[in-house]
Amino acid sequence: MAMVFGGAGLALNNFLSPSANYIYPAGDVITGADPVLDLTGRIEVARGDIGPRTAVIIVLGQSLSVNEVPTPYVPVNTNIDQLNIYDGKLYRAKDPLLGINVSGGTITDLRGTWMMRMADKLIAAGYFDRVILVPMAVGNTRADQWASEATAPFLFNKINVVGLRLRDAGLPCTAIMWGQGESDTSAGTSQASYAASLQKVIAEFNHAIPGCPILVAAESYYYGATSAAVLAAQASVVNGTTVFAGENVDSIGSGGRYDNTHLNETGADQRATLAVAALMAALAS
């Protein structure tokens, strides 16, 4: 697949002011949503050569895709980096990841992610030599919040920030991975409403980073309950050409969740394995 560079479609949008990289503080609206920004102990890395053996993966959604696994994951491979969407710089990836909040603890807690495990597996399996993660999830969010440019915390506008950050860093986009649904299960969101919100998010990514494949996870499991409406909406946006089925997170049962919602270390590893399979299937299409 040809590399798709971020920012190619930004002229179609309305966020090109000098403050285009501004990210509204989600913590002002959502308790505990303040991102990890402390750079103590972080190692800035150079862009280096970017070729087809480098994967640049954007991950967005809610609390399962922030720093929520009880313990940090230490990867076997050292060539896993991350783009910090708050300063546009590349750092050696390290749990807790920069730019996303901590779920299940305070912002200073050392918690982990499933994304670091996925990156490690992608390299270990020989699919890529380097993985650059671009985390942008916000815990405790609904799909309609991601689709709103007019209501705080204005999560919709983060899509353009990420497009600008990729452009300015000279990074391509390998895939965009959407993992969200628990809050909509709790809220009782209808299939039509969820699908409309997700379609708007997808359309904006197609503007900001045109041509980058989007994977939509099957994700609705909330304290043991799932939502047929949310799952149907997630499946409805998949077309097999630009939007693909992501990992089935709902297949991870209570044994992979420390509170019957959020992932423990076992669940995070299971999700990472499922995500690798879904991603490589999408990229092969």
Structural class: alpha/beta
**Count of separate DSSP helical elements:** 7
The whole-angstrom Rg is 17 Å
First CA to last CA: what distance? 9 Å
Helix content: 25-40%
Shape: globular
Would you identify the regions where 5 or more consecutive residues have pLDDT less than 50?
5-15
Beta fraction: 5-15%
Q: How are the strands of the largest sheet arranged?
A: 4-3-5-2-7-8-9
Main β sheet profile: 7 strands, mixed
Number of strands: 9
Instruction: State mean pLDDT (0 to 100 scale).
Output: 92
What is the N-to-C succession of helices and strands?
EEEEHEHHEEHHEHEH
Can you summarize this structure?
By secondary structure, the chain is α/β, with parallel strands linked by helices.
Describe the overall structure.
This protein is α/β, with parallel strands linked by helices and 285 residues long. The chain has seven helices and nine strands; from the N terminus they run E-E-E-E-H-E-H-H-E-E-H-H-E-H-E-H. The chain has helices at 114-124, 143-146, 158-169, 182-187, 191-208, 228-236, 265-283, and strands at residues 4-5, 54-61, 80-83, 90-92, 130-135, 172-173, 175-179, 214-218, 243-248. The strands form two sheets. A seven-stranded mixed sheet has the order 4-3-5-2-7-8-9, sandwiched between helices. It has a two-stranded antiparallel sheet with strand order 1-6. A hairpin with a 6-residue loop joins strand 3 and strand 4. The N and C termini lie close together (9 Å). The model is unreliable at 5-15 (pLDDT under 50).
Structural topology:
Blueprint: E1 4-5, E2 54-61, E3 80-83, E4 90-92, H1 114-124, E5 130-135, H2 143-146, H3 158-169, E6 172-173, E7 175-179, H4 182-187, H5 191-208, E8 214-218, H6 228-236, E9 243-248, H7 265-283
Parallel strand pairs: 2-5, 2-7, 3-5, 7-8, 8-9
Antiparallel strand pairs: 1-6, 3-4
Helix pairs in contact: 1-7, 3-5, 5-6
